[in-house]
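Action item from last week, closing it out:
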Amino acid sequence: MKYFFICLISFLGSGLTLFSGFGLGTLLTPVYAIFFPVELAISMTAIVHFLNNVFKLSLLGKHASKNIVIKFGIPSLIAAFIGAYCLGKLSGMPVLYHYRLNGKVFEITPVKIIISLLLIFFSLAEVFPFLAKLTFKKERFTAGGLVSGFFGGLSGNQGAFRSAFLMKAGLSKEQFLATGIVIACMVDVARLIVYNNRFVFITAEINYYLLGASVMCAFAGAYLGNRFIKKVTIAFIQKLVIVFLLLFSILLGCGII
């Protein structure tokens, strides 16, 4: 049963998040956490996430916009470290509200509320005509990368902010997906470095058979999703991103993730 659930989420999550640009870690971490300690679940998810992004890079990397990777990705990577540092400072802030659901305690914190409201703004921006027409000029990519990386590092979910910004970059569907994947790989390397310093990796505790099966299922999901890219439009991808952003922001604001 453990193998079934983890492999299923890896497969479906990888396929769906190929189009959204984020979400695999959000879906996979709680499933791993059912069967493993939280620290180990986060670490194993990070490994699956990184290897899956490398695989997706081999499928779509050639379409990435080098200009945006440099002007948006590098500032995003640097700012993510700053955001993560600030998160450590803000983590001591008092909890606004906590509640129990099915025996588990969920906490609503100031940081989660801030991130949730920002993501809701990005999501609903597509609803308002004057915001929907907004695009980023090339000289603003650096500022966008800094904002995305900072709040991504602060929330621990860089992909949501990255996709929200790249939607406004005027990219084709192939460029949108590939550029996000390249930047995601850069950020994943940083995440693994941080996690290696933050968590103690105990080799004996990692189920490498399960980890390997999860990675292979994620590969299969990404490969299948890649086969459907030509059949979807950039409008469909943008709508999918909006749905994911709204769902993620609501769950975050409620303290569930």
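Closing note: The chain has a mean pLDDT of 77.
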